[in-house]
Input
Amino acid sequence: MNKILATALCLAASSAFFAGAQEINWSRPHKQSIVANPDSTLTVSFFAPEAKNVTLTGFTPNQIQLSKGDDGNWSAEIPGVKPDLYTYSFIIDGVKTLDSGNTYILRDCNNVMNEIIVAGGNADMYVTKDVPHGTVSKVWYNSPALGKNRRMTVYTPAGYESSGQQYPVLYLLHGMGGDEEAWSDLGSAVQILDNLIASGKAEPMIVVMPNGNAEKTAAPGFSDEGLYFPEFDHSISEKDKFEKAFPDIKNFVEKTFRTKPGKGNSAIAGLSMGGGHTWKISMLMPDAFDYVGIFSGAVGWNGHGVDEISENDAMLIQNQFANPPKLYWIGIGRDDFLYELNKGYRGFLDSKGYKYDYHESAGGHTWTNWRDYLILFASQIFK
Amino acid sequence: MNKILATALCLAASSAFFAGAQEINWSRPHKQSIVANPDSTLTVSFFAPEAKNVTLTGFTPNQIQLSKGDDGNWSAEIPGVKPDLYTYSFIIDGVKTLDSGNTYILRDCNNVMNEIIVAGGNADMYVTKDVPHGTVSKVWYNSPALGKNRRMTVYTPAGYESSGQQYPVLYLLHGMGGDEEAWSDLGSAVQILDNLIASGKAEPMIVVMPNGNAEKTAAPGFSDEGLYFPEFDHSISEKDKFEKAFPDIKNFVEKTFRTKPGKGNSAIAGLSMGGGHTWKISMLMPDAFDYVGIFSGAVGWNGHGVDEISENDAMLIQNQFANPPKLYWIGIGRDDFLYELNKGYRGFLDSKGYKYDYHESAGGHTWTNWRDYLILFASQIFK
Output
C-alpha cells in the first residue's frame, strides 16, 4: 500500500492535478526558454512546432526574429545583453504568449510580461539575497479627503518587529498606469532596500508606497471593482487631488508605524506622474520633507497637460526653499521625453538660486533608470 | 506646448512605452476573451487569426475545442458553468498561452494560469468587497530548528493596527507544490476572511500562512535561490521536519503579534500535505490547539509514502484526545484520491472513541473544496 499511495500523492502533487487541468506544456521536463550566458549573450529556445513565425519582445532590438529548427524549437543568440531586469514575451503568429519555462511574471498596468534578471552591476541589487529581510505589508488606510478606504504597500526594515526603535520614512510614488504594487514589484524596491540596508549603504527606513490614483482605492483585483481589465486612463488622477489628500497618508503612517518625527526623518520621491506628485506635495507641505526625489518627473503636470510654472506654484516653491530641504534631487535620462520639461524646470530653479542635486543618466523613461535612481536617492537620505 | 506634452504623456503612459516594448496585442482596444453571462454560460472569443487549432483548458470538460470564425476569433459557448474561481489557459497549436485580455494570473507550483470568478454561491466569498480589509504581510522569522530565516504570510484582521486588542490565531498550511503564497493567492483566504469577519460569520482572527517546505526558505523568487523554475519535488518536505520545527513559528507569532493566549485561541488547519502537517503538529503539541482542521489530509504521510497509523502516532493521538480539542474537523471530497486513506483514519478514530466532525463534499482534491472547507472551518472556531 505504501508504494501505491506514495505514487498517488506524487501524481496528485503535480500542478496539473492541483489545477484540475491537463496542461500539455507542463508534462514535458522543464527547459528554460532563455538562458543568460557568462559571455553576456542570451540563448533563446522556445518550443512551438506548429508556429509559422515567432518573435521575442523586450530586449534590444525590441522585436527579435527567432529561427525555427527541425526539433520545433525557435531560437536566437542575443549578444551584448547588459545586466538588468528585463520583461519579455513571445509573439507567436501575432499572439502574445508568456513563457511556460518561466513562472516569474510582472504586470505594468494591463501588460503582463515574463521577468528575467541578467546579473551584474546594479541588477545585483534587484535580486533577493541571503540578507536580513524587511516586512512587506498591504495595509488599508482611511482617507477622509478622498472619502475612501485605500490600499498601500509598506516596507518595514529587517528587525522592525522586535527592535522597538523608531525609523525614518520614505514615501515612494508610482507613475501613470501604476498603483501601490508598482514599486514593490516592477521597481524591485523591496530587494533594493533590503540589499542597501544590509550593506550599510542606506539607513534602515520605512518605505510607504501608496496608490497615487485618486479615483481608485487599490490595485486591480484588490478593490470591489472586481477583476476588471485595467485600461490606461489618466482621469484616475485628477489635478492635485491625490497631492492635496496626501496628509491622510502621512497621518496614518505616523499613527500606525514607529516613525521618527520631523522633517529630517521624512523623504518623498516618485517617478513620472509620481515625480509630479512629489514635486507638488513637497511644496504643499514645505515643513514635511528634508529629502525630495523627482525621477523623470512630470513637474508642472496639471492632470491634463503641462503648463509653465504657475504663479501660485512659484510662490509655493519660494516658500519651500525659504527653509530648503537638505536634498532636492532631480534625475532624468537623456532620451526621456520629459527631458526638455525638466531642463526648463532646472532653469527655473537656477534663475531663483534654489539648490538641487541633478543626475543625468543614459536612457529614457524606463524602470531601469527608476531603479537606479532609487538606489542613488535612498543611499543619500537620513544621513 | 500644452497639447504636445499632454499627448506625449499619454503616449508615455501606455504600458507598451513603460515596458520599453511594442506589444502588438495591447494596441488593440481591450476585448475580454471570456465573458460570464447571467444564464450560467461563458462566452469565449480569443483572437488568433493564424492559428490552426485553439483549445481552452480549465473548465468542464477540461479541453474545450474552440471554433474559428472569419474574423480570426476562436469561440465557444460553455453552458452550465457553476459559480467558482476558475483557472484557465489557451493552447494554441500545442503552445500554452495566457489570455492577453485578462491580467489576473495565479501560480500553482510551476503552473501559471489566468483567473476568472463566476459569481454566486461560495464564489461570492472569493471576491474583494467594500468591507473593512485586513492587512496582509510577508514577514521573515528565524527558525532555530531549521537553521534558516524563513518567510510567512500573515493576515491581521481589519482594525488590528488601531484596536490594541489581542486576537486568536489560525495557522493555515498549504499542500505539496505550494508555499507561503498558496492560501492567500490561490486559496482566496484574504477575501474569505475579510468577508466572513465583516458579515459576522467568523471572529476577527490572525491567520498565519507559513512555508511548509522544510528545505526552502520562501516562495520562488523570494529566496536567494534566484528566479528558478519551481519543480515539484517532495524532498523539500522531509519526514516530520517541518512539523517538529513548528514551535519556532508559534513562538515568533506570539512574540510579534498581539495574540490571545491559550489553547482556546489557537487553531491549525491545512490541505493535503498541510492536512498531514496539521494532523502531526496537533498531536505533537496536544495543549496548543483547540481547533484542528484536516482538509483532504495526507494523514499518516511520512514523507515518502503512507503508513498505517504507527504505534508512536497512536500514542500521541491518545495523548491529544485525553484532553481533546473542541473541534477536530475532517473534510474531504468523495472523488479525492485520499478518500480511502481518510476513511481508514476515521475508522481508527471511531474505534478509539475519539470525537471529530466530518464533512464530506462532492468533488476531489481541489481548491474549490479547500476554499469551501476554509469557509466552514473558520466559521466554527473561537466561538
The mean pLDDT of chain A is 90. The two ends of chain A are 65 Å apart (CA to CA).
